[in-house]
């Protein structure tokens, strides 16, 4: 028998990481999922593969592959750690916990700065009080006027509309713990049967039921189920770039007298005029100023 016939045939393929767990990376390629590890030189080069990464890998079977190269990323989120996201479904609840426009705006900034298309989903409308329902409806009108797509959901969601958004795309679903992310995913794909947890009355928030980031098949696309989180960092966002994360502010910046206007204390500011004339929602402008102050007061990191 010829010696070369004894050698295993090794294939070099391209695929996308759909799960990272315990040092293994599960890469989806041409209808199959391969269990792989990262080459040792990745650590030396300070490179870490992320869920969502497009990669080049080698494998002679589906359980013993190695990632050779991480292809250039379109974008990257820190919380959750995931790359190459097309759309972000930001889930908030009308009640338990009560919907917060401030928190919503902070999530939107984190998504906008990565050039990811955000979609807002406000859950638990069926168990919210009348005042909470009214607040959610008013917020919906404001965000839709800005240009965002907004869903108000009960225990049943508009599955066709959400599936249409996800088809052919990679989406991330994110929000505070306990707002119903896993419940929403289970409704979109009942075969997932993801773990859900009730709100902890003592903490006033949900228990974390998701332990790792994973791309899950939903319709003709993927959605990342991500661990619940409620804090957002803007380490790489400069104060002068915050305005680009608020579409209604960016649209009016050209009308300001000063080119470097931050729409804070400057005279002849088109944004402040729009706020006064109620063309920009006051809570959106207040949140912009709050985040701007935080960015300006941020301590430098070395």
Describe the model.
A hairpin with a 5-residue loop joins strand 4 (54-59) and strand 5 (65-70). This protein has helices spanning 41-44, 101-112, 130-146, 159-166, 181-188, 247-250, 270-276, 282-296, and strands at residues 11-21, 24-29, 32-38, 54-59, 65-70, 76-77, 82-83, 87-93, 117-123, 149-152, 170-174, 199-200, 205-206, 214-218, 221-225. The strands form four sheets. The protein has a six-stranded mixed beta sheet with strand order 10-9-8-11-15-14, sandwiched between helices. The chain has a five-stranded mixed β-barrel with strand order 1-2-3-5-4. It has eight helices and 15 strands. Helix 2 packs across helix 8 (282-296). It has 302 residues and is of the alpha/beta class. One of its GO terms (cellular component) is cytoplasm. GTP binds at residues 123-126, 175-183. Residues 83-230 form the EngC GTPase domain. Belongs to the TRAFAC class YlqF/YawG GTPase family. RsgA subfamily.
Set out the fold topology:
Elements: E1 11-21, E2 24-29, E3 32-38, H1 41-44, E4 54-59, E5 65-70, E6 76-77, E7 82-83, E8 87-93, H2 101-112, E9 117-123, H3 130-146, E10 149-152, H4 159-166, E11 170-174, H5 181-188, E12 199-200, E13 205-206, E14 214-218, E15 221-225, H6 247-250, H7 270-276, H8 282-296
Parallel strand pairs: 3-5, 8-9, 8-11, 9-10, 11-15
Antiparallel strand pairs: 1-2, 1-4, 2-3, 4-5, 6-7, 12-13, 14-15
Domain CP-type G: 74-232
GO molecular function, one term: metal ion binding
Organism: Listeria kieliensis
């Amino acid at each position: 028998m010829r010696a070369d016939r004894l050698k295993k045939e090794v294939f070099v393929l391209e695929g996308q990481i759909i799960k990272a767990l315990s040092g293994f990376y599960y890469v989806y390629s041409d209808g199959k999922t391969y269990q792989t590890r990262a080459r040792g030189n990745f650590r030396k080069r300070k490179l870490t593969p992320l869920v969502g990464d497009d990669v080049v890998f080698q494998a002679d079977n589906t359980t013993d592959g190695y990632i050779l190269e991480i292809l250039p990323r379109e974008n990257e989120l820190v919380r959750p750690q995931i790359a190459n996201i097309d759309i972000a479904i930001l889930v908030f609840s009308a009640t338990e916990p009560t919907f917060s426009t401030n928190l919503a705006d902070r999530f939107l900034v984190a998504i906008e700065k990565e050039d990811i298309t955000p979609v807002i989903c406000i859950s638990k409308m069926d168990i919210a009080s009348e005042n909470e329902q009214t607040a959610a409806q008013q917020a919906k009108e404001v965000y839709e006027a800005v240009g965002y797509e907004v869903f108000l959901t009960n225990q049943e969601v508009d599955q066709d509309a959400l599936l249409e958004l996800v088809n052919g795309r990679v989406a991330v679903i994110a929000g505070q713990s306990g707002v119903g992310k896993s419940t929403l995913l289970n409704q979109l794909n009942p075969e997932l049967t993801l773990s859900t947890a009730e709100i902890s009355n003592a903490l006033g928030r949900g228990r974390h039921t998701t332990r790792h980031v994973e791309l899950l098949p939903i319709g003709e696309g993927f959605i990342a189920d991500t661990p619940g989180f409620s804090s957002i960092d803007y380490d790489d966002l400069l104060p002068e770039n915050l305005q680009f994360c608020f579409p209604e502010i960016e649209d009016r910046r050209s009308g300001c007298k000063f080119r470097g206007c931050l729409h804070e204390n400057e005279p002849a500011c088109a944004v402040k005029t729009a706020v006064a004339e109620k063309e920009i929602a006051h809570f959106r402008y207040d949140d912009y100023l709050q985040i701007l102050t935080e960015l300006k007061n941020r301590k430098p990191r070395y």
